Amino acid sequence: MKTISMQKNILLFGFLLIPVLLLLMFVLYPLIELVRISFTDWNGMAAQQVYIGFDNYIKMFTDSSDVWLSLRNNGIYFIFHLIMIPLELAIAVLLDSKIRASKFFKSIIFMPYIINGVAISYIFAFFYSPINGGLNGILEALGLESLIQNWLTNDSIVNISLVFVSIWRFSGFHVILFLAGLQSIPQDQFESAKIDGANSIQNFWYIIVPGIKKVLEVILFLNIVGALQVFDIPYIMTQGGPGHASSTFTLYTLETAFKFNSFGMASAMGITMLILIIILNGVQNRLFNLKGVGEE
Amino acid sequence: MTTNRLANPIKKFALYLILLMICMIIFIPLLITLFASFKTSMQIGSEFALKLPESFNFNNYKVVLEKGKFLQGLGNSLFLIAVSVIINSLLGTMTAYAINRFDFRLKKIILGLFLAGMIMPGMITEISRFTIIKNLGLYNSIWAPIVIYAATNLVQLYIYTQFINGIPKELDESAMLDGSSYFKVFTKMIFPLLLPATATLAIIKAVDVMNDMYIPYLYMPSSTLRTLTTTLMYFSSSKFGSWDYLSAAIILVMLPTLVIYLIFSKYIFKGIVAGAVKG
């Protein structure tokens, strides 16, 4: 037996050494470093790092309107994606009904999620382009010239333009998740509901909604994390401009670090985001359970 | 399958109309770019964006391939994918085997580490990871992204766990009685039985690596190390970044993932849904 237990220890050591080392070096240590650097004035290069207590955090909350502007923009992504959720569920219900070519539609609807995000950003930069851009061309062809805009340079609509790209890219993914949830509902529930004379609205509230509760929670969580971390669409399409009008929290944080070399400040923002994610997710779970949408 | 009664032909018509409209919204921006990739700069400036190109003129693609170094980018991306996927699959299966088949003291802590990895906001981590990569001497080398991509994440571990739990423990034990070592049990039995899960996870990893922008952009600024995605970023700001050439470049960069998607869509659906819902 001794050899077996030794064999076990050797195997565990050999199999787990590299994965654990990678986690320690590239996950845990960076997390600790992020906290530490957030209390310094480090510029990313200097050998010297002066500890300045909560100065970065205080400065962030009192002296940096662009951070708040950026965070507000994240809020816009969050709200619009939230509004889309019922629509996404409706589309999933449509796809789940017995229609021809549902597989075909499913593949198409999911496709944007697979396409390269940078490519998507350029495609829409072209689409919105004020000179020979597709969108203005289509509006002109439809006789809607009055709606023609500078979609990416007008600071009152630039965020809406970018949010549309985000919806175009991620909604299909949500639809597919809802569809998976719907298909996990046992068929006999609908059959017994039919016998009991339930109508489709009752079906929806008493069978579908509880059946997809888990998926809905996942999508809401992904929405929080996703909206707080929006980066590549505004980074490629507008660089956060005009000014900081379409900046987002992640974009602004990374700019602070790698463009303005304020690693201390950027780390404080990073930690703030981590805390925000944890708090918002907690609040959402609370709300969700209060509403008591179905019991498991 | 939910059976909605679709006896009513008007209802049915409305349903297809909605789905077709969604498809149009998805396809219009893509088609505009595809058409533009066959047009000259003059045509793009004067024609309606959805007008079919007069001919399939591959001149833009030729210029892009000659000037844009997209083949080099593709090569780098494929290298990154191959190495990351191989290491990631090995580490993932090994970790899953060790964690699911054995009890040991540090198990909870290791799982906690994986959890920490999952809640860390992706790109923000690079602020402090940047220094580590630099100090390790990996900056501006193709190994910088690899050490990041290769690490197993919690979702992968979860999917492997589902599979391993489906393999009866008695199989391990009888193999052990026949004189196999734990290592042999893993290589001869567990690893092969996990291959379906590995295939799904590998395809998803490949798509992720192919589409990732920020890690290669941050850690590999050297012009010879550009991936397909970062090549597109540099190309757009070069003197060839006008819409005729850029459209062709966009289509070229989209193609590899679309091909992967068309061939493996079944695996991709399965893996992504399982990963999101269970993760």
UniProtKB/TrEMBL annotation, chain A:
CDD domains linked: TM_PBP2 (cd06261)
UniProt-annotated location(s): Cell membrane
The protein, known as: Multiple sugar transport system permease protein
Entry annotated with the keyword RNA-binding: no
Main location: membrane
Annotated organism of origin: Paenibacillus macquariensis
Gene3D superfamilies: MetI-like (1.10.3720.10)
Membrane-related topology note: Multi-pass membrane protein
Pfam families per the UniProt record, alphabetical: BPD_transp_1 (PF00528)
Similarity annotation: Belongs to the binding-protein-dependent transport system permease family.
Keyword annotations from UniProtKB, A to Z: Cell membrane, Membrane, Sugar transport, Transmembrane, Transmembrane helix, Transport
TM ranges: 12-32, 75-95, 107-128, 157-182, 257-280
SUPFAM superfamilies found in the cross-reference section: MetI-like
Domain named ABC transmembrane type-1: residues: 70-284
Automatic annotation (TrEMBL), chain B:
PROSITE patterns given in the database record: ABC_TM1
Transmembrane segments: 13-38, 78-97, 109-130, 142-161, 182-204, 245-264
Organism superkingdom: Bacteria
Major location category of this protein: membrane
Membrane topology type: Multi-pass membrane protein
Keywords: Cell membrane, Membrane, Sugar transport, Transmembrane, Transmembrane helix, Transport
ABC transmembrane type-1 domain ranges (all copies): 74-264
Gene3D superfamilies for this protein: MetI-like
Compartmental location: Cell membrane
Recorded family membership: Belongs to the binding-protein-dependent transport system permease family.
Protein name in UniProt: Multiple sugar transport system permease protein
Species the sequence originates in: Paenibacillus macquariensis
